[in-house]
Amino acid sequence: MNVAVLSGGVGGARFVRGLVEAADPSRVTVIGNVGDDLEVLGLHVSPDLDSILYALAGLNDEERGWGRAGETWNALEAVGDLGGEAWFKLGDRDLGLHLVRTQWLREGEPLSAVTRRLAVALGIEATVLPATDDRLRTFVQTDAGELSFQDWFVRRGHRDEVNGVRFDGVETARAAPGVTEALKNADLIVIAPSNPYVSIGPVLAVQEIREALTGRRIPSVAVSPLIGGRSVKGPADRMLSRLQGGTDPIQVAQCYLGLIDALVIDETDADGAAAVEDVGVRAIVTRTLMSNPDARKRLAEAALEATAALR
Ligand code: GDP
Ligand code: CA
Questions:
Q1: Closest CA to ligand 1's atom 27
Q2: Can you tell me the distance from the alpha carbon of 269 to that of 206, in angstroms, rounded to the nearest whole number?
Q3: 152 and 159 Cβ atoms separated by less than 8 Å
Q4: CB-based pocket (< 6 A), ligand 1
Q5: Averaged over 46-68, what is the pLDDT?
Q6: Which positions ≥6 away from 130 have C-beta within 8 Å?
Q7: Which whole-number Å values give the CA distances from 26 to 2, 211, 290, in the listed order?
Q8: Rounded-to-integer distance, Cα 75 and Cα 151, Å
Q9: What percent of the chain has pLDDT over 70?
Q10: Which of 53, 71, 110, 118 has the highest Cβ tally under 10 A?
Q11: d(CA 301, CA 309)
Q12: Distance 195 CA to ligand 2 centre (A)
């Protein structure tokens, strides 16, 4: 079975790792968010793609949820001591990847080709693609004005409430090579338990990707990033309450109406299942906390089994 999965960083990468343990990794294509990409210290950083690469290579820091395990921070400390830009945390080993990526991009390679080379070097069997090779950047509207994604998320610790989201460059962004093909050749499309607005939003905002989903002839299933109406980490719950009017499964389903046939929700949210079914989306109730390798594999299996349930 070919599986195409749309993914953000922390939640997405955890889930994708479970997916390659539950399915044939060579038939998994991950389509990653690039709306959070940024230039730091002259380097091109793709935080969500990196979380996915590190998780698939088994190099990720499970505890922190981002970056590499066993990381050290000498370079960044030196940057700070010199009065350089040190608010965006880049570990020494992580910096190695950003150096290589940046060089290859400057030599004219598109991000998709660079990502493929990195994945091969890391021994990853699954295909990892950026949603687009074009410049697409997320901005959030807050009472403090419009902020670039990382300014809001990292520098200001996502404390500002979000009134709206804008994806700069999306009007002209094309899906990266391989993306629409993967969606067309998939037997199942999965939306990972990622932030619907700022992780999955930028992916779905690429017209060709959205059209591939709305015109799909195969099942599509999303996994809710909320447990008991709360995010495991990050601002998804606050954004859903403010922008969608609540944090029940129905509000998650509403983010994806027309794009999914089923929504995997947590046992603790089971009483919200009926409202999801009322809008024509199958609710699949299971345990969704990916607290260990077993749990993340079981969650991936539940999503894969949705195909059978939808027949
Ligand atoms: P980011 O790009 O690093 O912000 O990561 P994502 O958008 O991919 O993931 C963030 C979301 O993952 C948050 O809304 C979390 O609630 C969700 N998440 C993290 N761990 C888990 C988990 O174990 N289970 C579920 N269901 N969601 C999770
Ligand atoms: Ca992200």
A1: 225
A2: 31
A3: no
A4: 8-12, 14, 48, 51, 193-195, 199, 224-225, 227, 231-234, 236, 288-290
A5: 95
A6: 31, 32, 34, 46, 49, 111, 112, 115, 176
A7: 9, 25, 22
A8: 21
A9: 100
A10: 53
A11: 12
A12: 8
Which DSSP category does 134 fall into?
Answer: S
Q: What is the pTM assigned to this prediction?
A: 0.98
Tokens of 68: 């590499």
Give 46's contacts (C-beta < 8 A, 6+ positions apart): 32, 34, 36, 37, 101, 111, 115, 130
Q: Which of 187, 262, 167, 136 is closest to 5 using CA atoms?
A: 187
Query: In the block, which residue shows the tokens 């479970």?
Result: 18
Query: Measured between alpha carbons, how far is 110 from 125 in angstroms, rounded to an integer?
Result: 20
Q: Which of 1, 8, 6, 45 is nearest to 179 (CA)?
A: 6
- pLDDT given for residue 2 in this prediction: 97
Q: Is 178 left (phi over 0), alpha (psi -120 to 50) or beta?
A: left
**CA 188 to centroid of chain Cα atoms:** 17
For the residues 160-183, what does the mean pLDDT come to? Answer: 98
DSSP state of 153: I
